[in-house]
From TrEMBL:
Membrane topology: Single-pass membrane protein
Taxon lineage: Eukaryota, Metazoa, Chordata, Craniata, Vertebrata
UniProt cross-references to SUPFAM superfamilies, sorted A to Z: WD40 repeat-like (SSF50978)
GO CC terms, sorted: endoplasmic reticulum membrane
UniProt name for this protein: PREB protein
Length: 174
């Protein structure tokens, strides 16, 4: 192996690292930050006190990270587990104290056939392991969105309603 890049990612130790798509890297450090990197450039990051205000950051920190390409799983030293959208870091799921103590590792269920069976109707599944000798499965419900056909139908209805209102307001418009 040959080193290709070196840069300072965190103040202090790095607790965990995960590789993502497009050569992006996610790191969780002892400096209470979780960061997304493209080469040596910071793309975005989470600081504990910004993500969970009101909770003192000196007692808590990100401990483990796992990146599925679509989602980022984070575990903390307090046993909490969260799932974020990868690389925008918008939080979709959070369980405070899912474990009694430190989350040591996380892994997303793969997109294989047995993995899809375990997912059922959920969008993602994250396994968390902690010092409390427990392994837990976290299921992310499917996010609801409007079907494209319904959106097109609503737009067509809006256009027709606008034309009718214009015809009513300005007789002889058409």
């Amino acid at each position: 192996m040959k080193k290709t890049l070196e840069f300072k990612a965190h103040d202090g130790e790095i607790e965990d690292i995960a590789l993502g798509p497009d050569n992006k890297v996610v790191t969780a450090g002892r400096d209470f930050q979780c960061c997304v990197w493209q080469q040596d450039q910071l793309v975005t990051g989470l600081r504990w006190h910004e993500n969970l205000p009101g909770i003192p950051d000196k007692a808590y920190r990100y401990q483990a990270c796992s990146d599925s390409g679509t989602f980022l799983g984070l575990g903390t030293v307090t046993g909490s587990v969260a799932i974020h959208i990868a690389f925008s870091l918008q939080r979709l799921y959070y369980v405070k104290e899912a474990h009694g103590i430190v989350v040591t590792d996380l892994a997303f269920v793969p997109e294989s056939r047995p993995g899809r069976e375990l997912l059922g109707g959920h969008e993602a599944a994250l396994l968390s392991v902690a010092v409390d000798s427990r392994c837990k499965l976290h299921l992310l419900p499917v996010r609801r969105s409007l079907p494209v056909w319904l959106l097109l139908l609503l737009c067509a209805g809006l256009i027709v309603a606008t034309i009718l209102l214009l015809q009513l307001a300005f007789p002889g418009f058409l």
